[in-house]
Description:
Elements: H1 6-14, H2 26-32, E1 44-47, H3 52-55, H4 59-69, E2 77-83, E3 86-91, H5 93-105, E4 118-122, H6 134-152, E5 156-163, H7 168-180, H8 191-214, H9 218-239, H10 243-266, E6 273-276, H11 281-293, E7 298-300, E8 303-307, E9 316-320, H12 328-343, E10 347-351, H13 357-369, E11 378-381, E12 386-388, E13 391-392, H14 403-417, H15 428-448, E14 456-457, H16 460-463, H17 471-490, H18 503-510, H19 516-526, H20 528-538, H21 542-560, H22 571-593
Parallel strand pairs: 4-5, 4-10, 5-6, 10-11, 12-14
Antiparallel strand pairs: 1-3, 2-3, 7-8, 8-9, 12-13
Helix pairs in contact: 1-2, 5-18, 5-19, 5-22, 6-15, 6-20, 7-8, 7-9, 8-9, 8-10, 11-12, 12-13, 14-15, 17-21, 17-22, 18-22, 19-21, 19-22, 20-21, 21-22
Amino acid sequence: MHPGSLVAAVARALHPVLPAAAGLTEDEVAASLAAPPDPTLGDFAFPCFKLAKALRKGPPQIAAEIAAGLADPAGMFSRAVATGPYVNLTLDLGRAAALVLPRLAAGEPARRPATGVRVMVEFSQPNTHKAFHVGHMRNLCLGDSLVRLLRVAGDDVVAANYLGDVGAHIAKCLWWYLDRLHDRTPPADRRGEWLGELYAAASNQLDTWEDQAQAGDVAAAAELQQAKARTSEILHRLEAREPEIMAVWQETREWSLEEFAEIYKWCDVGFDRVFFESEVDEPGLKLVAEFLDKGVFVVSNGAVGVVNDEVKHMPFFMLRKQDGTSLYSTKDLALARLKFEEYRIDRSIYVVDVRQSDHFRHVFLTLKKMGFYQAERCQHVPYEMVELPDGPMAGRKGNVVLFRSLRQQMTAHLRKTWFQQFEGQWSPEEIDAAERTVALGAIKYGMLNRDVNQKIVFDLAAWLNLDGNTGPYLQYTGARAGSILRECGEVGKALDPALLASEAAVQAVTASLKEPQERELLLALDRLPQTLAAAAEQLRPSIVCTYAFELCRTFNRFYNADNCRVKPSEGPLLQARLLLVHAFVHALRETLAVLGISVPRRM
């Protein structure tokens, strides 16, 4: 609960009126407050059910007595009415506005004090030698937003990435690159994407031979057997770190890394630490041997693993195959140990799709058996997949919307449908920057607006709509609010900075606020701190999206109301409404910032 919030103020005003026998603290009073189902009833409702036993009275009688005690006309409330077992409270709008608006208008952040908790959020995790596509964006946007939310919540957050730069997919890609290409010269500017095309071609060829072999095609069976032998050979040579194949691996790996870096820069996402599968595969095998010797792990049919009976449908968690090679599980345990030792983290969050839920349950159970106390604070944030209208995407099938194509399609759409009208009025640089900002806002909001347990169907045109529950709608509303302030400033109607420093001065102007749209906007602005806190606690950025959309709808009702025009206003009312708009601009920017979205100066 933010100390300057209306909930806190209402609790402070209400608490002294409650009978001492009720035994409620101020915080407990605040936790009981809720919005009435009908806004005409009041701004807050206090239920009296819990007081009945202690006071030996019916809740309606208790509510009536509390309402009578709040009849002071100079107090926080303009009205207190008992409605059945509830006390419905209507705030004095001027006093409430004076409490909330100055800190928001001044841009005071909702960041909480430092918790002293170090959290690592691992997200993105693309594979090198594969193309980065729209499906990867849900993980990227979700993880980045969690990093931002937890930092606002006061945690010391380490943003981490874990790149898959070893494994069978590498062997397939390099087989095609080394054996199937007549010309191995990569393109000049999309080499990472090109590697993804090679991987898709290799996977498709292997699948074709597999189908043909099963249908009795002897030649296809021979080709398949030869190809599998070759990919196995490449994989073993990579695992053995043979210099010749490692040189090819390092060169091609760098192509992917360069492309990833460019994508992350465009998306305004940064990482404090990038881990690689290649740095934990050997330590993973050593870890298995260590804990096998300690009796934590067991041998079963030549493989090594651990028995986690808590996962009833698959209790044996394999950590080393019969041939002595590692698995994802092996490397995840080594990675966890590396995180704990290198960063001394208290909490570890893994943003990985829902298909890996059983895997991470095993990982956390195993870490606990290995003696890592942090295992209790390891958490998997699962999310559903991004699909196209005609079904799931798969890189090996090649039916994906590649990131480069996504970016080009979105900016081209925005230029044609919106920003083309400003050519000749704005500089080319401003138009380019605005297109990038709006395209990125559309992607991020589209990826975060749905809860993690819901699938996303990617719809480019719908996400770019300026009218609806979209990122561009929010950005356009923010830009519109900014234009109000600029237009007022151009005619000498600017906010008096003294209002941000004097409580008496600000209350003198906010007393002029009377309209229901002003009240509605004030109440919406006040919900920002608790919204951010709830989203961080639940690890659900979709909560912020819902709030942002409702905040903008509320502002637009204020903006479009004839009785709330800002620029024609004069005197104290002008200053009060300028305070409201300044507060909205800063609140929306702070809200969108935790989603990784910014607002263009104008749209």
